[in-house]
Specification:
Layout lengths: L14 E10 L6 E11 L4 E5 L6 H8 L7 E6 L2 E2 L5 H11 E4 L11 H12 L5 H10 L15 H14 L4 E5 L7 H18 L3 E4 L3 H4 L4 E6 L2 E7 L3 H20 L1
Parallel strand pairs: 3-8, 3-9, 6-7, 7-8
Antiparallel strand pairs: 1-2, 1-4, 4-5, 9-10
The protein binds adenosine-5'-diphosphate.
Length: about 260
């Protein structure tokens, strides 16, 4: 998989959705969570997904990460269409090609920071690339805390371990779900900085769901969802420009409630 390409390849996006729809429930409980979403996430790019609560952010992330099935359309990681995979292949793809960072860190309490970082690779029976691992640990500044258990670390440090764990396997893409949701603003800024550095310096691809315009401003691009559709796409975001778009999106959906 890591063999060098012998001929120039068409550059495929790290992940993409094409006419992706997701419907939950039936009849009166039917909810169209995603309504024909088409979007590409380029390699070595940091994308934030924003939108009002219930707009489909988590659903889009779950469908694209193979954590949920799609109702129509397709989700691809690289060239691989997730729909076409059997359960076992999907598990394998998630393990080998996708990194996850969750709001709640999801570390194993009985393992040290170092053991948590290498756990997915150990489970997969993959050889740990020591040099890469050292680079990752250095990037997130955890070299002096590797023997600590999660309970002996602050929230910010635990999230750094989770970021290192996601980066360690050199996944095709990292999906981060409100990664700073449980952190104070200083620790949050640190994590967002590490995520951005991993894109700039290590070439990682990251897609992050957030509702925080400041968090989104660390990304290269912000994709906005409303009612299960992409309604805006903002390159080179700033906290102010993100907030402005969010207000416009919220205002646009207000008359529906007011009428
Ligand atoms: P967001 O992450 O933007 O808050 P979600 O993707 O969680 O939005 O939800 C989009 C819509 O889909 C909402 O109306 C939500 O209630 C609905 N939804 C999400 N998950 C489920 C589920 N498992 N069953 C039924 N409806 C769901």
């Amino acid at each position: 998989m890591t063999s060098p390409a012998t001929a120039p390849r068409a550059v495929t996006a790290a992940a993409r959705a094409t006419d992706l729809s997701k419907v939950y429930g039936e009849g009166e409980t039917r909810v169209v969570a995603l309504d024909g979403v088409t979007v590409e996430f380029q390699r070595a790019e940091y994308t934030a997904i924003m939108g009002p609560s219930g707009s489909g952010k988590s659903t889009l992330m779950h469908c694209m990460a193979g954590l949920d099935t799609v109702s129509a359309g397709s989700a691809r990681i690289g060239d691989t269409e997730l729909n076409s995979l059997k359960d076992k292949q999907l598990t394998q793809l998630r393990r080998d090609k996708i990194g996850f960072v969750f709001q709640s860190f999801n570390l194993i309490p009985t393992l040290s920071a170092a053991e948590n970082i290498t756990l997915p690779m150990n489970i997969a029976g993959r050889k740990v690339d020591r040099r890469w691992l050292d680079t990752v640990i250095e990037t997130v500044g955890m070299a002096d805390r590797l023997k600590h258990r999660p309970a002996q670390l602050s929230g910010g440090q635990q999230q750094r371990v989770a970021v290192a764990r996601a980066l360690a396997g050199q996944p095709e893409i990292i999906f981060a779900d409100e990664p700073t949701g449980n952190l104070d603003s200083r620790a949050g800024a640190e994590i967002l900085g590490f995520l951005r550095n991993s894109v700039r310096e290590l070439g990682q691809t990251i897609v992050m769901v957030t509702h925080d315009p400041v968090a989104a401003s660390y990304a290269d691009r912000v994709v906005f969802l409303a009612d299960g559709r992409i309604v805006d796409d903002l390159p080179a975001p700033t906290a102010d420009s993100v907030l402005e778009r969010m207000l416009a999106i919220t205002a646009a959906s207000t008359p529906k409630d007011a009428s």
